[in-house]
Design brief:
InterPro entries: Glyco_hydro_28, PbH1, Pectin_lyas_fold, Pectin_lyase_fold/virulence. It is found in: Secreted, Cell wall. The chain is mainly beta. The chain contains four helices and 31 strands. The strands form two sheets. The chain has a 20-stranded mixed sheet that branches. The chain has an eleven-stranded parallel sheet with strand order 5-8-11-14-17-19-21-23-25-27-30. A hairpin with a 2-residue loop joins strand 28 and strand 29.
Length: 391
């Protein structure tokens, strides 16, 4: 009997211990010295909160209450003692207004080697307008910093976050697995340089849902080594559209495969759905891509494959793209083009595009049929296709 009671007590203690481990530890940055005035440097408070959360054996929450918090460059490193750290942000994290402070560091906020991190809500204000003005004046300016980066990290969730006026890219996912971004908003001027909304590369299992992008570069850019990417219910504009590429900048380069982009609206963008590759040798490739249910509203280049990308005519004139583009489907694409050529497939003469499929595409230009242009592209069309397919 005594032995039975002893076993019962031990079991209760273990259950209590396990239950206590399941209750998240919460670290409020105000309690750690942060000031919500937008002027006092709160970087150390954020770093202290991360150190405590990362070192906790149980799930942890870092809470940022309402207010504006000045934050310098922060590098959040893993691995951590737990795989469930949540940043719950009800306030705004503000970058230094002097763009020289972050201009050469690469990233404002960087997560590296973490597993199971969630960012929920909040605003990240990159204060990039000063750097944009510097670049527009042709002065010697810093490159600028990415607002939020995840490198070599897994099982990441970014939900309800707003990225405002990033100096350079807003969000970068690099070398990651299983990343979900939902309800993300990206806001920057349509003339802001190199302010891609979300850039994905060398990553698999990335999902982007119910998000809105207004920026000066690609709403989403998809770099080498991206696989199993799903983008759905996205609004883009102003911006340069959704781009696979640029690819083929390097001779040895990983390919892009299994990409689905569906239920997307483009408003006044430079491009709609684009694939672009440098006009020079490369081992890169694009295959297994579906563009589906897209609405184009006054888009300059609604559908484009450009394998002769050569900015400033440097290091590529007269060369031919080695990137192989195959098995790309455009299905249920409708709307208006701001230029006469609404569909342009400008593929490599040495590596022609193959398996290009147009299904139920209707694009008009000034209430008239638009035009299509093909070079070194092969494929098929079905259903109603306007402009008339040149494949």
């Amino acid at each position: 009997m005594a032995k039975h009671i002893s076993s019962l007590v031990i079991a209760l203690i273990l259950n209590f211990f396990n239950a206590s481990l399941a209750i998240p530890a919460t670290y409020n940055v105000l309690s750690l010295g942060a000031k919500p005035d937008g002027k006092t440097d709160s970087t150390k408070s954020l770093i202290s909160a991360w150190a405590a959360a990362c070192g906790s054996p149980r799930p942890a929450t870092i809470y940022v209450p309402p207010g504006r918090y000045l934050v310098q460059q922060v590098h959040f490193r893993g691995a951590c003692q737990n795989k469930a750290i949540t940043f719950r942000i009800d306030g705004t994290l503000v970058a230094p207004s002097d763009y020289n402070v972050l201009g050469s560091v690469g990233n404002w906020m960087l997560f590296e080697g973490v597993n199971g991190v969630t960012i929920s809500g909040g605003i990240l204000d990159g204060q990039g307008t000063g750097l944009w003005a510097c670049k527009a004046s042709s002065k010697l300016c810093p490159i600028g910093a990415t607002t939020l980066g995840f490198v070599n990290s897994n099982n990441i969730v970014i939900s309800g976050l707003t990225s405002l006026n990033s100096q350079m890219f807003h969000i970068v996912i690099n070398g990651c697995r299983n990343v979900k971004l939902q309800g993300v908003r990206v806001l920057a001027s349509g003339t802001s340089p190199n302010t891609d909304g979300i850039h994905v590369q060398l990553s698999s299992g990335v999902t982007i849902l119910r998000s809105k992008f207004s920026t000066g570069d690609d709403c989403v850019s998809i770099g080498p080594g991206t696989a199993n990417l799903w983008i759905e219910n996205v609004v883009c504009g102003p911006g340069h559209g959704i781009s696979i590429g640029s690819l083929g900048k390097d001779l040895q380069e990983a390919g892009v495969q299994n990409v689905t982009i569906k239920t997307v609206t483009f408003k006044g963008t430079q491009n709609g759905v684009r694939i672009k590759a440098w006009g020079r040798p490369s081992s890169g490739f694009v295959q297994g891509v579906l563009f589906q249910h897209a609405v184009m509203i006054n888009v300059q280049n609604p559908i484009v494959i450009d394998q002769n990308y050569c900015p400033h005519n440097l290091n590529c004139p007269g060369q031919v793209s080695g990137v192989k583009v195959r098995d790309v489907t455009y299905q249920d694409i409708h709307g208006t083009s701001a230029t006469r050529v609404a569909v342009k497939f400008d593929c490599s003469r040495n590596n022609p595009c193959s398996g290009i499929r147009l299904e139920d595409v209707k694009l008009t230009y000034q209430n008239q049929p638009a035009a299509a242009s093909c070079a070194n592209a092969g494929g098929s069309s079905s259903g109603l296709v306007e402009p008339t397919s040149c494949l």
